Each structure stands twice: as C-alpha cells, then as structure tokens.
Amino acid sequence: MRYPPMLGPATAGARAGTDAAEDERTSQSRGSWLLALALSLVLVLGLSITTPAAAQEAAPNDDVAAMTLLEALDVDSFPAKGDAIDAIVHSDDPRARDWLQALLDGRLQRAGDGRFVVVLDNTGRDWPVQDALSGEPLGQMSRRELDRIGINNALRNQLRSAIAVVDLYAADVGLRRASAERLLGEVDGDLAGPLAEVIEEEPDARVRGRLVQALAIYRLEQGELEAIDDLQGSLHSRVRVALNRATNGDDPIVADAAREALNGIEQMLKVNRAAETLYFGLSLGSVLVLAAIGLAITFGVMGVINMAHGELIMLGAYTTWAMQQLLPGQPGLALILAIPAGFMVAALAGIAIERGVIQFLKGRPLETLLATFGISLILQQLVRTGISPLNRTVITPEWMSGSIAVNDALSLTLNRMYVLGFALVVFAALMLIMRRTRLGLEVRAVTQNRAMARSMGIRATRVDILTFALGSGVAGLAGVALSQLTNVGPNLGQNYIIDSFMVVVFGGVGNLWGTLVAGLSLGVINQVLEPWAGAVMAKIIVLVFIILFIQKRPRGLFPQKGRAAEG
Amino acid sequence: MDSSRLWLLRPFGERSTLIFLGVLLAAVTLVTLLHVALPPGHPLYVNAYTVNLFGKYLSYALLAVAVDLVWGYLGILSLGHGAFFALGGYAMGMYLMRQIGDRGVYGHPVLPDFMVFLNWDSLPWYWLGFDMAWFAFLMVMLVPGALALVFGFLAFRSRVTGVYLSIITQALTFALMLAFFRNEMGFGGSDGLTDFRELLGFNLRSSETRLGLFLASGVALALGYVLCRAIVTSKLGRVCVATRDAEARTRFLGYRVERFQLFVFVVSAMLAGLAGALYVPQVGIINPSEFSPLFSIEIVLWVALGGRATLYGAVIGAILVNYAKTVFTGAMPDAWLFALGGLFVLVTVFLPKGVAGLLALRLRRRRDADGSFSGKEASA
Amino acid sequence: MSILRSLASRDRVFDFLVPAESPVDVRHGPILYLEDVTVSFDGFKAINDLNLTIDDGELRCIIGPNGAGKTTMMDIITGKTRPDSGQVWFGSRHDLLSMNEPDIASLGIGRKFQKPTVFEVLTVFENLELAMAADKRILPTLTARMNGEIRDHIDEVLEIIGLKALHARPAGILSHGQKQWLEIGMLLMQRPRLLLVDEPVAGMTEQEMERTAELLTGLAGKQSVVVVEHDMGFVRSIARKVTVLHQGSVLAEGSMDQVSSDPRVIEVYLGAEVEEETL
C-alpha cells in the first residue's frame, strides 16, 4: 500500500504556486472560509465545541500551539479526542489536513520521547517516521517505541467529513472532487451560504457541478422549485433519495416536478444498466474468447482434443504469480513480464504434450481426449503437491485497479477493460499469424490436405509442433489475464475447459471469427440471463442452449463447407 | 416368436460368456462363503465392510459394461454416462428417503429432512410415487432411459458424432451437476440424499442386507452382461460395429443408423441407471458429485484399461481401477491423481486394446499356432 | 413430433423391400433422371446445371478430369449431398431429393465408394450378410437368424466375387482388389436396380481388371450400372455409352469412339490424360 504524499509546510508553500487558479485566492479569504465551513461542519455533526477560542488564537506555524493541539489527541476518551479533532480543524494550521489524514490512517503516533511522528511505512519491524511538526525525517524507529493514537468508527466518520471540508480548499483538483462528492446530501443551512461562494470561485467544472447539486439538494429540501433544474438528469443515488423525498413533500408543484425529474432519471438508469450488463457480458465473453481461442487452434486446425488446455491456462496464471514472487514490490512489471513468460511456459508444456503423447495418437481423436485428460490430472496434482492446494494471491497492479466512472450510475472496472482489450489484441495477432505469415499458410495447407501439403515440401510434423505450441501459448496468455480476474488455484483450468469447448463448438470448429463471436455472445447472454435466472441457472440455460443448438447446426455458427468438411 | 427368445439365449452358446459367468459365480460364491461360513476372527474371514466394497465394485462393473456397449461397439465415447448412473441412483435415493418416514431428525411424516429444513410444506410433484418400491425401481431405469432417448434422438438425428458428441455429453452431465447442486431442485442440494434406513423393509446397516445387495449386484451384472452380449452377437451388434467403423457405408446399405445408435444408447443408459440404483444403498449416499465430468471420464478409463469392445474387459477394468483407488486413496491420497492421470496416458498410448487385448493376443497366438480358424458366430 | 410421425409410418417405411417387387416405375422412361442440378461449396460450383439420363438396364461410363464433379454427382444421387437447385428422379415416381440415404438405398440404389469401404473387423461373410436385402429395422435386426436360404444366397455371391475360401476371414486382411470385389458383392446382396460404381479398378492388377470388367458387363441388363472411372483402357473395354463431365456439367455423350474424337473432350480431358501418361 502506498500513502498519499506527506505535505509539510515547505511543500505546501511551494505547491501554492503551481496552480494559477489558486493564486486568485488570498490566503486571507481562504482562512476565513475554512473556518466558517469547519464551524458549520461541527454543527452538522452535532458536536460541541470546547476550545474554539484557543483555536482561533493559534497562529499558523506556531509549534507550541500545534503541540498543544496534538497533545489533546493523546487521551483515552474518544469524545475528548473528537473535541481535539475539532480543535485541529479550527486551528487554521496548514499542517492540519496531514495530521487528520495521518490520524485517520492510524499513522499519527507518539514516540517514547513525547514527540508526535507520522509513520511513513508500517511494514516490518522498524518503521521510517517523520516529525509531525517539522516534517523532518527522523529515520527508523522500532514499533515498540511508538504509541498509536487510536480512533473508533465515529471518529473515523468525523475525520472523513472534516477532511472533506478542508479539502475543498486544496490545490489538488482530485482532493476537491472527492470532497465535493462527500458533501452530497450533507449540506445544511449553515453550510449553504459559504458553499454558494465557494461554487463561484471553483475553477473546476466537475467540482462545481457537484457542489451545485449538493447545494440544490439543500434548496430542494427547503421547497425551492428551481432546485430541481439543477438535479435534472443526475444519476447519483443521493440525488434520487432527495427527489424521492420531495415527491412526498407538501408542495404539489414541487412534488410533481420531482416526480418528472425522477422518471427521466429512471430512463437513463435503464440505459446505464443495459450498458453495464453489456460491459460485464463482453468482459466475461472476452475471458471465454481468451480461454477458447487457443483451443480453437489446436482443436479446430489440428483436430486435436486437448483436455489439458485448461491446465495450460492454469500454468499461465501460476507463471504470473511466480513472476510477482520473483519481483516483489513491482506487481505491474511482473505482470507485463508474465505475458511473454506465460506464453513460453505454456507453449513449452504444449510442445512436451504434443511430442510426448499426442503424436502417437494421430488420427485417434477420442484416445487423444483421454490421454490429455490424464495429463490434466497430473498437472493439477503437480501444482497441488508442488505449490499448494490453496489459491495463490496475484496482485493487481495499481494502474489496473480501480474503475472509470462514466457517470454516477456506471463505472467500468479497469481490470476487466484491460482484459477485454488484451483479448482483442491476442485475437488480432492470431488472425495476423494465420492470415499473413508463412506459418499460417502452412497450417491452413496441412489442415486442408495433409498428404498434399507434405508432398509440396511442408514439414507437417514441424507445423504440428508449432501449431500446438501456438495454441498452448495462447492458453498461457489467457492464464495471465485470468490471474487478474479470478482466483489462481489448481482448479482454475477445470473451471474453464467445458466452457471453452462450448465456445469452440458453438462458433464452428476451425473458424477463429466464429470463436470470437461465440465467446462474446455467450458472455453477454450469460450476463443478460443472470439477473432473473441466477448465476447457476444462467449457466445451465446457456449449456442446454448450446446442446440444443449443436443438434440444429452440428457445425456451429460458422461452419466450414465443402467436401473436406463432409468427411 | 421363439426367434426373439433365442437371441437372448445366444450368449450361452459362447465360450467367453460361459467363462465369464463361471468366474463371476465362483467369485461371488467364494466371498459369500468366506463371509458367512467363517468366524470373524479367521484370517480368511471377509468382513461386512469388504463385502460392501465388492458390491460397490460390481455395480461399477455393470456401469462399465454399459459404457463399453456404446463406446466399444458403437464408437460413441460418452463422457456423460455418470449422469445416467447418478439419475438411477437419485431415483433409488428418493425411494430410500421416503422409506425413512417420520424417523428423520425433524420427524416429519412425509417430507425428507432437507425439505423441512428449506421450509417446504409439501412434496414436489416429481417426488410423488417414490414411496412405492415398484414405481421407484421402474424409474431407476426409465428416467435415465428417457433422458438418453431425448438427448440421443436429437444428437443422432443431427449426426452429431465423434468428439462433438463426447463434448456435448460432457456438457450435459456438467449442466445436470450444476442443477442438482441447487437446493431449489428438490434433491437435497450439495448434500444430496442420505441417512437411509431401510430397503424393502431390510435394515440397510445390517450385514445381511449388505450381503444381499452384494449378491443382487452380482446377479444384475450377470444379467446385464448377458443382455449386452446378446445384443453384440446379434446381427444388430454387427450393424453397430459396421456403424462404428464406416457410418456412411452402413447408411448406404439401407440401415437407419441413427435409430440403431439411439436404441443401443438408451439400453446402455438404462443399465447405467440400474448400476446407480445398486450403488446408492451400498454407499448410503447420493450427491451431485456423481454427475461430475471427472467421474464420467473415469468410467471411460476403466473400459479403456480393461479393453474396449469385449464387455468382460470393462468388468476387469472397473474392478482393477477401483481396487487400486481404494488402496491408493487409503495409503497415499496425493499419489492417486498422479496414478490415475498416468493410467490415462499409458493405456491410450501403450495399451490401446487394454488388458483384454493382451489376453486375446495370447489366445490368438496359440490358436494361430494350431493353424485352425474357429467357426464364425454368424453361422452359429 | 417427428418421433411420433416415424412411429406412425413404421409400416410404410421402405425398409423391407426386395428389389424384385421394387416400386420403381420405368415404364415412362429412364431409371435415373437428373435435371439442372447445381451445387456449390463456398462459391465453387462443383456441379453446374447437370443433366443426365440413365436408361433401365444400361451400363454407362462417366469420365472426366479430377474435380469434374463425378463423386459429388454420386453424393447427390445417394442423398449424401443436397443440391442447391435441380431435380433428381429415380424412375418416374421417386423424388430422390426428398429422401435420406437409407431410404434411397432401400429403393434399390447401391453405391460403391471410390475408396473401398468394407467393414474391416467383420468377416467377409458378415459383410455380405449386413448388405443383404432384409428387414433393416431395429427389432428384426436384433432377432434376425441365419437360415439356409440366406446362406445359399451369400454363398452364391461369394462364388461370383471369388472370395469363397476367405469367407471367414476379417475383411481387413483382404487385398485391395479383393476389397473392391467384396464391395461389389455387397452391392449384389442388396439386389439393387441401379449400381453406382466409383473407380472400381483403381489399384487393380491387369488380371483383376479383366475379371471386374466381366463382372460389371455381366450385371448390365439385369441392373443399371453407372461406372465412374479414370482408366481409359478399362472404360474402352466395357463401355457402350460414355458421358464426359467437365466443370460440373456434361461436355459430351456418346460411344467411346465418338467422345474420344470430340475436339472439346480431347482438349479438356484426353489431352491432359495424354500429358499425364507421357510424364
């Protein structure tokens, strides 16, 4: 876990100059508004103010006053700590936000000599710390020398709200956005006035929009009809709560307008929900495509049934895990390196399977199926006894976690987005290999007429090995991608093998486009069914659908036609 | 009409069937005698647990015979025969559940414990009738048969064969497994059906009943074997082999191949159901894991190891693998999956005709050395 | 639904039809009649507007270079491939396009494949037994018993194809030529009205070829025989009427002498053949 950067007094000053918009505000107005907001916040939270006078008198950068403020935190009673937090909020000390944040994160601690320190990294036995007042690094301290300032849930909420208000004045747009977000539905009469002025001065459109909505919710509560205009089309759940409350209000005109606004929002929500289902469907579909496309090559092109395909996927996933073990602290780099590594590991395993078993079973597809099933059992058990029967944790790098919020109702998780993109890239690469390279040409030649291809000087055995390696390698890639979405364990492959076969058979054997369309559409169908049938039932329905579909079109969606296929 | 009786008796004219039945009879008799006649302390005494274990092997052997009938003679590699076995087992399990009556944990006179637990107030319609033994025993064969009929009708009509068929049979049993895992299905969810007490009034926990079930499994195996043997030695059996080796050619000879496939597939499914019904009272539980694709594919291994298209090979394979499994999982549980996986590879690569193939090879060598070609079944 | 239908129509299915009582109506013309048949695979027209008429009792040879559509034509007649358009009639009563392979086989159309396909693990005797015209439904097949009449019939055919001594051996051990004969024998067991024979002498020795020619010419008259063959010498030795296929349609038709002097035929086929032979 990485902490947000610590902002000491020096850096805070330097930062002020970075944002041109920031310069328009005088530190004077900033201070007074901060005070007003903080005061109203305290009222919102219904907490009494015990030391307002002292706080107001505290001059900025006064270390003695600051020490007093922090000393007040080091008490046993939580209510007393709450008061101390208020005092800090009111102190106008530029370091206040950092203290509050550190306190919230449990990193504000007191050293044995009575100094307050902020812990920078609390893993291991000795922790690097810096002085809470001066911001100077103090080197490492043993955890035994340190005493944490404990907080409870109520204090945690208080801290978050306090930081939100403080953050509205932060130079960082991200902080201001997050803060505005938290104010939705929390605005009251005392906050409304100052907020209106903050809105005027806010340079960022998104923050302004949010604050307008936050204010509008308050205005709506006051029965102001025009407020509904500001809430129109917002998908935020708190806005909907406010509008809902307004429909039951005394003023029929406001209630009607609120109802109308709600209807509009409901329509937009439906569209968003459909978009979300589609996204999840495509995401699931891309996983299916990744898992199946390697199979489409070995099964479709070579006619080889590889039941160990799932375990090749598993190998890819474990390669990712192993890479992260080799490069601790760099999960992102490890993941990127795992892509070629996973491909190679699975491809080599595939070559071993092809040379060791499959080549002896040429022309006996059912026996191949049984033998490769045996291999899948062995590989699973190898992982179970060699590594562990338990699931391994694969870390999702920071740039892959989180999500993109399209709007308030729809946010797309990044890891799924990456996997979707990855699947498409792999697919495109495979298409290129099959269509544009010598290997692809030879593979197609061997597929269509083995004897003829041989007589034309194509080494069919070499083509077999390369094709199988390619198909297996792609399974490894699927494993690398899957490690970001699901548990990495010995059963990983088993869970995907039947689905993968279904995708290949559904799409039409020997047709990569078919696999793509089949995988994506099965993913979407599954997601569409899930809400009303349940996850398991949706899966059953899809399986039965495919079983019936195969009866109707035994050669899948995109069958190969012609004499060779009739055989 | 006597001709229709004759085809069933035809296997008794074969030496291989007589040998098989003789060995089976001898083995069953021996186990029974060692169990009944010897005092428990005797070194050769076979205890009730072992009798029970052998009974389980025999029901597995019947299942393997059913799989060999479709795989060995029809060339259809079913990766879903576990589903028919499990359905037969569930039909039997439902009967045994109803026999518990009000002696369950919740003491409800009609509803099985798990339904009381789920707050159901009446039996679902498909549980009706299972309190009657004759109905349940009929369903043991009819339910798997009906599923095989519908599935096979669709599949064979569209000429889904080879690996495609294998894959969709696997999907079938997988879908059923998922379905039976659901509590809402009314089959006890992941716990399945268990805590059985009586079968036809006999206490399932008594050693006499266990011996009875062991003997019943032996008889069922013998009958199933003779039936399958009668089928494969008939002209219909030769049509099956013809279909297996050259389906198109068989069609051009005027045989409606899909109907033959369907007939044999349904017979096989019913035998598998019977095997499941014998299995369940002996192990005392039936749960959705019997539907798992792994189990179905394991059955195929038994047949492959024993030697396909021989029927007796399937019996040998089933007993060998399951005996090995009992020994391995007791002594070195981790090694079992390695051994099983290794068996799959070794058998398919090095022993394509299985143990029976080795036996037959030795016999044929001896016969060839004699220089005589024994008569053909067709003219018998 | 179709289960019910097939059950209901069980007694009307043409399973048990001895060709002597065949309902094939040839009073009004040919036994086989193909009109404007077209079939394409992925845009490639394997058969293109094919018209072909075979008379009752005729022995017809069909020649043509590779890819001329000979095998596809046989696939269409026997119900294996459905044409995109056109008509195929057997006699004047049976629309072959509305029937499946077993029905067509039961009507009395027998087919010998290009690659000899016999049931290798079954004995020669059993191969013939399966081919025999009989009730081919499930239960009659299950309860079928061997009797003297059937055995005599099989023996007779064994005699014709010269495999009597090998009757108890699995068909898999037969030589290539012997397999071809066994397959012809299986066709004879079906007592067909129309025999479709795809490359009967491929891989045969000179001697075997002569015997095959004898066999086929002996059959003509009683049955209609269509022979697809590459070997010009063989075609010349048996042919009365020859049809030349090219690119899926009929290029020329007539006696061997007529077609072999046709300049178009020489260009597209015989020319190529000569070249091949000189190579």
Automatic annotation (TrEMBL), chain B:
Keyword Cell membrane: yes
Ranges that cross the membrane: 18-37, 57-90, 110-128, 134-156, 163-181, 211-228, 260-279, 299-323, 335-361
Alphabetized InterPro entries for the sequence: ABC_transp_permease (IPR001851), ABC_transptr_urea_perm_UrtC (IPR017778), LivM-like (IPR043428)
Subcellular location(s) of the protein: Cell inner membrane
UniProt superkingdom: Bacteria
Bilayer topology term: Multi-pass membrane protein
Key words of the record: Cell membrane, Membrane, Transmembrane, Transmembrane helix
Name recorded for this polypeptide: Urea ABC transporter permease subunit UrtC
Source organism: Billgrantia aerodenitrificans
TrEMBL record, chain C:
Protein's UniProt keywords contain 4Fe-4S: no
SUPFAM superfamilies: P-loop containing nucleoside triphosphate hydrolases
InterPro entries: ABC_AA/LPS_Transport (IPR051120), ABC_transporter-like_ATP-bd (IPR003439), ABC_transptr_urea_ATP-bd_UrtD (IPR017781), BCA_ABC_TP_C (IPR032823), P-loop_NTPase (IPR027417)
Keyword Ribonucleoprotein: no
GO molecular function: ATP binding
Keyword terms: ATP-binding, Nucleotide-binding, Transport
ABC transporter domain span: 32-272
Protein known as: Urea ABC transporter ATP-binding protein UrtD
Species whose genome carries this gene: Billgrantia aerodenitrificans
